Amino acid sequence: MSSLEVSEEVRQYLKTPTFDNWQWEDAEIMVLLQVMYTDLDFISTFNIELDVLQQFLYEVYRRYNNIPFHNFKHCFCVTQMMYGLIWLIDLRSKIDSIDLLIMLTSAVCHDLDHTGYNNAYQINARTELALRYNDISPLENHHCAVAFEILEKSESNIFRNLPTEQYKRIREGIIKCILATDMTRHTEILNKFKAILPVFDFSNKDHRDVLMMIMIKVSDISNEARPMDVAEPWLDCLLQEFFNQSDMEKLEGLPVTPFMDRDKVTKPSSQTGFIRFVLFPLFIELANLFPCLEVRTFLEDLTCLELRSPPCVSQKITARLRTFVSQSDSSIKRPCSIIKGLVHPKMKIMSLMTHPHVVPNL
Ligand SMILES: [Zn+2]
Prior knowledge:
Radius of gyration: 20 Å
Number of strands: 0
Structural class: mainly alpha
Order of helices and strands: HHHHHHHHHHHHHHHHH
Bound molecules: zinc ion
């Protein structure tokens, strides 16, 4: 697998938050992830061998489950949004490369081995994960532990050439970032960020730590900030996973989370509240630090829409929201094939997975 033969056009497109993940197969996505490590200069700066990076990404791929939402494609989307934001706000000129490496790798690993059932289910059903982590962010703790399981193996440890001190800093950073994706900590983290914003200082480690947590949170819930034809299928995937959980909760006699209940939720209703009360407030604070993100204009649009219309205007609202990541050209279509003959030997099996009659033996 090599990223060298990925065209310049694709490399530039990959840096834009309007990137369409649905145009790419998993084997190609692996190469695109490699391009991100290459184009942020991580390969040379941190002396990462290409075959180790390839093995790391392959192990990551294997440890994402085939579930409707929290799968390998979600891992890619979150990582790609992180990558796009790094370029959009020119973060390379503001913080150390090692922090960028932490942020990108955290995004890659942030939902490893997700089972499709959220923390509330884990805790109510007293699953193995809830028991192991004493009900404290069971999933996020698990994602992080799986990440370091992969990194413990020398052949897939992309940090193996780094001095112990740097490894320690990276480990601490990745743990912080992945644990920050637990939505029950949303308000706590957002309030921390708001408090430091007026005096934000890129040379202050505590400030940078909070920014890194905010960045992975923004990336994690950024589907609604993507073009409509990219975001729409993701909402279906999310609701499918929610409904699977609530069906299971009903079967097992566990409390059913209302926003996951197929009898209570509709597509628009599931999104308006989330966009207004979770996504907007988060994006707005990030835009306060990086004015080029221009979130304010569409907050006003949103308010106008809500005043004039009943709650079921989410289509229009989400359309507005997508202007958040404007300016890039989303019309680029995937080239016929960027990576013929460049994939990991085992990846050939993966491309067969799309064929209904082939059962891969991975
Ligand atoms: Zn996620």
